[in-house]
Amino acid sequence: MPKPEPEKLSADEARVEALRVVAEDHFPYLATLDADQPRLRPVSPVKTDGFTVYVANLKSYGKTAEIEANPKVELCYLDKGHDQVRITAVAEVLKERETLESIWNENPLLRQY
């Protein structure tokens, strides 16, 4: 079987395509590191602004401590056609009240926590 060849895109086309994949996948996978053990789990972003992604999380969840200990993360988005976008980033645990309240108010499902 021949190796698939990726479609050649300009930088602008690649950005548009990547944003499409990000918009379509509602449950990307977040990779963190727990000491020397990789951890991967689906997450549900509560706000996306381009390639800036906000994921709601309780302080008691393991990924919060993992991000505080090592903020290097990767998010992997996958669409139905198996196109994927990987966002390699340095995450931060937000503590800014104004941003947290804005996200809280825009997402009624968060109120159950």
From TrEMBL:
Signal peptide: none annotated. Residues 20-105 form the Pyridoxamine 5'-phosphate oxidase N-terminal domain. Pfam families: PNPOx_N (PF01243). Gene3D superfamilies: Electron Transport, Fmn-binding Protein, Chain A (2.30.110.10). This is Pyridoxamine 5'-phosphate oxidase N-terminal domain-containing protein. It comes from marine metagenome. The lineage of its organism: unclassified sequences, metagenomes, ecological metagenomes.
